[in-house]
Automatic annotation (TrEMBL):
SMART domains: Tubulin (SM00864). GO terms for biological process: microtubule-based process. Residues 41-241 form the Tubulin/FtsZ GTPase domain. The keyword Heme does not apply. Belongs to the tubulin family. Keywords: Cytoplasm, Cytoskeleton, GTP-binding, Microtubule, Nucleotide-binding. The lineage of its organism: Eukaryota, Metazoa, Chordata, Craniata, Vertebrata. One of its GO terms (molecular function) is GTP binding. It is found in: Cytoplasm, Cytoskeleton. It comes from the Eukaryota. This is Tubulin delta chain. GO terms for cellular component: microtubule. It comes from Solea senegalensis (Senegalese sole).
Amino acid sequence: MSVVTLQLGQCGNQVGQELYDVICSDAQDAQRRTTHTTVSCERFFHQNKHGDLVARAVLIDMEPKVIKQSMKKAADSGRWRYGDDSHFSQKQGSGNNWANGFCVHGPRHIEVVEELVRREVERCDRLAGFMTMMSVAGGTGSGVGTYVTQSLRDAYSKSFILNHLTWPYGTGEVIVQNYNSVLTLAHLYQLSDAILVHENDTVHRICSQLLNIKHISFSDVNRVIAHQLGSVLQPALTADSHGVYSRNPLGEGNAHRQARTRWWRLFRACTTKAIFTEQLSSLDSWSVEPFLHVQYIPYSHNLFPVSRQNGIKSLCH
């Protein structure tokens, strides 16, 4: 079961590149666990004719700089890469304007984006769903990302769509970020099957108080987000899996969305444990609550050892 990722805007492309790096690194560290490695690589990568791992991803931005940097970092790692024909960029940004992205750039370029997505879908033996990665503060991630999600819902109506959103700092530099955020959520809430939110302020506190990073950069924040996403999306041993790795977290969620209840719509990711499928399947009692906080602690992860879990819990509440 394969997941096609759409990385939108500067934030989405940078976090997406870190996520694929984490997934590839974890798969290589788990060489003895052949099932884990096989399932994880099958889900997020395909192999080209040279045997290289190629991410099942489409990179979209209205400026080329970040996409070029992300593709170069992936290629320089020597472990995986992005496809040469899986990206789209222009020379003019969206100016941190949601309406510019949604009403101008989105409709203007949607046919090209749909073709890139179609190619990635055709490379999948079996499609589990889509994951879009974007920030809600700027114009391309929020505006174009929302329009692309709308297009995915129309074209792949039965596929599961997970939107990963990076929530801006409370004192951000984008003066219209509140408007961009509200407009994005208002649309995605009606289109998406699940929304997973990372708050920059919370992740910043994790970097400062738990990881003891003195001078926190966006790379540090992106790396923490990527590790948390990796713990959610990668194969996991759940309480009722009987020693078998879960193969398809998005597919499990898809089985529960058929009733079109609204309990699964919004997840807040402070810290996450890799039991996503089990938790999705056990939330029927929450059907009256559309906003859900998911705050499970990873039991074993290099970034968050067990000794720091109490500190993580205090940050989440």
